[in-house]
Design goal:
Strand order of the largest sheet: 14-12-11-17-18-19
Shape: globular
Structural class: alpha/beta
Number of helices: 16
Strand content: 15-25%
Number of strands: 19
Radius of gyration: 23 Å
Amino acid sequence: MEAYLLIDFGSTYTKVTAVDLDTETVLGTAQSSTTIEDDVRIGLNKALDELERQCGLGIEDYAARYACSSAAGGLKMVAIGLVPSLTLEAAKRACLGAGAKVIGSYGFELTRAQIAEIEEKRCDIIMLAGGTDGGNKDIILHNAGMLAKSAVDCPILVCGNAAVQDDIKEQLVAEGKQVYLADNVLPEVDRVCVESAQEIIRDIFVKHITKAKGLDKAAELVHRDIIPTPKATLDAATLLAEGTGTEPGMGSVLILEIGGATINVHSVEEVKPVSPHAIIRGLPEGKVKRTVEGDLGIRWNAHTICELVGSDVLRSNLAMLDPDADADSIDPDEFTRFLSSTTSHKPENETERAFDVALAFSAADVAVRRHAGTAHKETISIGEVDVQRGKNLLDVHSVIGVGGIFRYGEHPERILAAAKYNLRNPESLRPINPDFYLDKTYVIYAMGLLSQTHPDAALRIAKKYLKPVTKAEVGAHGETVTEGYANRANLSIPSSHGEGLMTH
């Protein structure tokens, strides 16, 4: 036996998974409350004790140990740019792709009030972008000056106009700030370049943030760097989609990761237009994409979800997803207020379990709609054309549900229908006819970690343990289509008089 230990220090629970590489099997999984406020090893040891009872392995029995973390809020960043739809959007993409949660974003010239907001947020890293190379210098210089005079004490990553980066670093360092330089995230108006910034973000996380969050002791235990949990999930998504040189992948994937504080959506799909002559607007998309919805966590933001979609929609979704549920016995407004104030609450009866699924479905519908691109028809001088913004996910092969609700929820497979293309929101370019899977053993994060050194084995284990769900089990849940978008015989992009997504 060649046993490996995979650890995820989550914001609520610390999860541990043991795998045997010789047989490529999961030996056991366990979890315990994360104890970041005291010593993260307390919760870890409780989880390890339970794991040892399952598979008989102590901490020294593992050939190697790997860990990721989203504890203490994960990697929290503030992004600052010039134009919100250009440099600021590029900066946010760089943050998200590195496994961060963007807790604030600011465009144009910073004000004193905004600086005060940033100081109060106490983020882990500030990303300062702005201006293409050879473009506007004034805004990023102004913002650097505001940061230099501020009480901000976290690292500042400068990744804007290359012509002024050295001057900005000198100004910030003179005021005692920790400064890092990376390539401009938007060197040209139509070219996004995030790799350099993402690499430095990960270095800062390892060098500074794991220690600040009390994870350095855990890093000593695993004898290697701890990476952000979203990075592990994104690595797993890429591995599943692309495969390795010797092990085939599953094709394009979308991972829907639902948690109590956020919903993360990860997609790996080739960049392509909805039609051969589509007009693409906005920044170019990449093959790998991640979005984080900090207002859609199904505990901390339960009431926000209710306000966003409406009590009537929650009731309707509850009746649609579980016709046997006693929908009249729950007041969505009152119950979601309770959930938001009692985030550790677990469903106590069948109706509450059904409502949890309806809440997750409603939040997932919004999250995937925000992640996916949009398309509509516009009339120009030569006739009607398709106008596309964002990523085309119509042909995604597989949708995978990750998170506690998918492991413990009542009929969690029904939540996955929220990721499908639906004629109620015809502009949203969501998957038309994907296969569906549930991560019932928390294998996704674990295989993302294992892929650092054993990608072939990690991929085979992931494919073995992801639970297939039939389309009948997922259900239609609304009028959907099954024909390919490009065929156009049975599906037409809607006309639009303006931009924006449709809402309930």
